[in-house]
Amino acid sequence: MNASLVSRFGALLFALVLPLIAAAEPTTGSIAPNFKLQDQHDAWISLADQRGKWLVVYVLSDG
Questions:
Q1: What are the b/e assignments for 12-37, b being 16+ CB within 10 Å?
Q2: Nearest 10 degrees: Cα torsion 13, 42, 46, 16
Q3: pLDDT tens by residue, the chain, 63 residues
Q4: How many CB atoms lie within 10 A of CB 47?
Q5: How far apart, in whole angstroms, are the C-alpha atoms of residue 39 and residue 42?
Q6: Which residue ranges make up each domain of the chain?
Q7: What's the per-residue H, E or C state across the chain?
Q8: What is the C-alpha separation between 50 and 44, in angstroms, rounded?
């Protein structure tokens, strides 16, 4: 591989991973960060749309 390609790949990897590293873990009692999930009808629902309502997030995992 040439050095330019390796350098670009490294920069891309850094740009993708940095937000994951920099994001602070929420503490108990703090407001949850916004996220979106798909429901069983393939509709996207965001946490912000549910603000002020009771909400249960039920997650199933095959792993």
A1: eeeeeeeeeeeeeeeeeeeeeeeeee
A2: 0
A3: 566 655 666 666 666 666 666 566 778 888 888 888 888 899 998 889 888 888 887 777 776
A4: 15
A5: 5
A6: 3-50
A7: CCHHHHHHHHHHHHHHHHHHHHCCCCCCCCCCCCCEEECCCCCEEECHHHCCCCCCCCCCCCC
A8: 12
